[in-house]
Amino acid sequence: MCESNYFTVEDLIKSHTARLRQIDNQPNAEIRKELEMTVCKLNVIGLYAQMRGANIKVTSGYRCEELNKIVGGVKTSLHMQGRAVDFVVSDDKIKHELYELLTQEEHRERLRICELIEYKTFMHVGFKKS
Description:
Shape: globular
Strand order of the largest sheet: 1-2-4-3
Oligomer: single chain
Largest sheet: 4 strands, antiparallel
Number of strands: 4
Structural class: alpha+beta
Strand content: 15-25%
């Protein structure tokens, strides 16, 4: 049986780098609403991975401006708006299958995906404004 892929808004806010650097990475109310939508979409993606036999682990969610600068994020990063998430998939084959699924227009529209990048070790997904 697979571990649960259920994520919360807090999972997208917590940051090892922010904690080490003592950066307040708490979003305002508007960004928190975006994070609530992002976490719902992430849970749909996680469910697909789980059904295929893999798990996902968030490596980067929300980033305040200061944290985004420190990690080398672009100035227009959707992470700062609570609308992007980076994650690793426990199985490379399933990661690629997940990428292929999310490139399909039907899924892009339903999840409101505007950014989708499959890197060698992780995936980045960005969403349109709610």
